[in-house]
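Reposting from the mailing list since nobody answered there.

I have sequence plus structure tokens for a pair of proteins and want to know whether others read the tokens the same way I do. The first protein:
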Amino acid sequence: MRISTFFYTLKQGIINIFRNKWFSLASVATISACLFLFGLFYAVIANFQSIVKTAEEGVSVTIFFQPGTTEEQMKEIGDKIEAREEVSKVEFTSADEAWDYYRANWIPEEFSDGFPDNPLENSASYAIYMKDIAEQAALVDYLNTIPEIKTVNQSELAATTLTGVNALVAYVSAGIILILLLVSVFLISNTVTIGISVRKEEISIMKYIGATDFFVRAPFVIEGILIGILGSAFPLGTIYVLYNKVVDYIGTKFSVLSNLLHFLPVNTIFTTLAPVIVIVGVGIGFMGSFITVRKHLRV
């Protein structure tokens, strides 16, 4: 494409927006509203997934060893477990450490001297934390094959619940995003269709004097892309300001809740959200205009 053609196409795309300013404004407003809802939804989901991830990281599988298992064997088994792909970390608790903790937290001081020996002599254990709670069943199956391990304690209910929550969130997210995208594409399509109807005579003249299909169609595609860019700029700015204000408000007014829920920083949210919204906005504008031009513009 020549530079002159590019600037002509860009100019015509901008003119189209102002020529159908009310419909263009409606499309920008609709895309902004859809992307704003998408952005809010993403921020909520991102924080929710962060909370679930934190909960998953706190769920562990605990193993206890057969009597007579040496510390060297325990260490060797611990190293093998930690090397597994699904394991994030392991924490070893010796029998003496287990007894010290139990005595300090559960036995009154006046009775602690009544236990001269360690009654938890065979209670050395590993707490095994996973990267993904869904891998718990496979890990437990592996642990049960190790002869030196006597008992494997797992949180099956927690694993099932957290895995189900993650799946539900994924399905709901996909459904809402699809609906918002379809609504936006529909609005862009209507705007471009109106632009084509208004310029039908002009387009016919252009074709008679030898204009190519690309030359005729390009301004409408540019129009859709520009509408998409404008529609993505407003929600980004609004969400950025609103997110900080909401987080600060919750931290100030609901201090107890803020201690339980650790919100992601706005920059962490926008690292993913900003490029996604811009790409989605431009994509909606491009697809809406491109599909409409192919369908309605018979030149």
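The second protein, same order (residues first, tokens after):
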Amino acid sequence: MRLGSVLSEAMRNIGSGVSRAFAMFLVVLVAGTLLGGYEAMSVVGLESEAGERIRSDADVKSIVGGDVDGGSCDRLADTFGGGATAGAMRAGSRIVMRATPGKDVSTYEVTAGMLRLVVAGTGAKADASGVWVSSDVARDFGLARGGMLRTTTGSVKVAGVFDWPNDGRDTRFAYAVLVPVAAGSGVFTECWVKQWPQSEQVDGLLYSTLRVSGKGGGNAGVTQVNKGFDTHYDAQASYMSRPTRWLPWIALASGMFVGVAAVRRRRLEYAGALHSGQGKGALLLGIAIETGVWSGLAALCSCALLTAYCARMVSSDSAAVLMGAVRSPLAMAVGVVVAGVAAGATIRQSQLFRFFKKR
């Protein structure tokens, strides 16, 4: 039987409804989309969890209880690379606003690296030409970027306003003024490092910022700036252990079941074709073409739906999430064709009368 004849017959079977192609198409489309969508939703959930930790500074660690060298602390960002930020801080003298003589505000002297850490993710430039005030202080005293902070000891330019939400993080910056100082201007009390994903070397490198003299780090310890989150969180481990990682295999098994069912319901027709003289190779090729058409189209439509979902819902690398999600509909289509051909290979001409009796 010529290839053109096999192809023509397969298309006629699909067009006439003999192969129930539309019903099978819907089965693969719905199942593939649900399985792939569940995988995409799972990864988006993990991504949202990681994003929330980053926005809440749960990825920031600090060393306290020792004399910190500001220059060494700021240079930690270069050591880690990859967008990491690090900076040192110490408590400054409290200031009194002219508008409220009876109320003082805490100040903290920070290095340029600490300013970059505070504004990380906001898109703001860490301008060290003036002081930075928290949004609560700015609201209470009517301050804005470029304005003047007027205190009983003088006035200074406001270089910027930063947000410091009450989401479990260290609350000292929530109502404070940050004063930029040179990294070499004496010792600091804390060094903070913001890095994602966090490295196991963070703790050791934080200890390396301590000065040998003074307190020497004997009472120093590393802590998490936002203690409202699990300190043992591992984004990579969470991704690798997600239950949906098995979905492509489930989709493959489901596709094989659909493929076998599609061939089994037409086994009398196939046995009759063999009895009429059709070759086994032509029969299997026809099965492969028919199952490949409706399962392939279903997988293609499913991938299109998953692409739209990822483009809408994924905030970072939508292509990476999509590549994981489309494995399920593609695996299901492959399972349909392979199982269909395998089931067709078991059909023999000698089974015709037995199939006829059981119809």
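Reply #1 (J.P.):
I read it the same way you do. Residues 60-228 form one domain.
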